[in-house]
């Protein structure tokens, strides 16, 4: 997992509430076993019409937001099913941080495991960033995990909180698998002890 310290660049505004995981990555694309390759299908039904042509009015199809590393969205982002592919798709597309007033709990956990930083801000703070990004396409901000701040190019500043354990894992770029492998020597020792006592097959 790639370490996260800062995400800096344009903000893509998604002025919607209750964006669920089926909107983020529709079920027909959940056929890969890798974590990569899902970015192409991110928000597929919102980005493309029934003929597969890009919808000109959708935010990610507009040049000013095309390579934005930060997404700002309405409350309850990532609700619906528990599919971790939603976090994978956002990360694979190029997003590093998602700003919203509230996230679905399982989606929040999946973000942490994918190196994607979910930042919870107040409704007022999200509204301010949303409006500035809509009014000024290409509006830039910096999300700093070390300082736990979001700073806009025009002086906007907001602080956020994140569980210390999750913050440290993101800063170091480690997930639960890495944490388990770090205990490999102890695990092997435990297995050897139990095997010697006939407690393991």
Quick summary of this structure?
The protein has helices at 21-24, 44-47, 85-93, 105-113, 123-135, 164-172, 176-181, 184-196; strands at 6-14, 70-73, 97-100, 117-120, 140-144, 149-152, 157-159.
Topology, element by element:
Elements: E1 6-14, H1 21-24, H2 44-47, E2 70-73, H3 85-93, E3 97-100, H4 105-113, E4 117-120, H5 123-135, E5 140-144, E6 149-152, E7 157-159, H6 164-172, H7 176-181, H8 184-196
Parallel strand pairs: 1-2, 2-3, 3-4
Antiparallel strand pairs: 1-5, 5-6, 6-7
Question: Can you give a write-up of this model?
Answer:
The chain has helices at residues 21-24, 44-47, 85-93, 105-113, 123-135, 164-172, 176-181, 184-196; strands at 6-14, 70-73, 97-100, 117-120, 140-144, 149-152, 157-159. Helix 4 (105-113) links the parallel strand 3 (97-100) and strand 4. The protein is built from eight helices and seven strands; from the N terminus they run βααβαβαβαβββααα. The chain has a single domain, classed as Aconitase, domain 4 (Alpha-Beta Barrel). The protein has a seven-stranded mixed beta sheet with strand order 4-3-2-1-5-6-7. It is an alpha/beta fold and 201 residues long. The longest helix is centred in the middle third of the chain and has 13 residues, at 123-135. The mean pLDDT is 91.
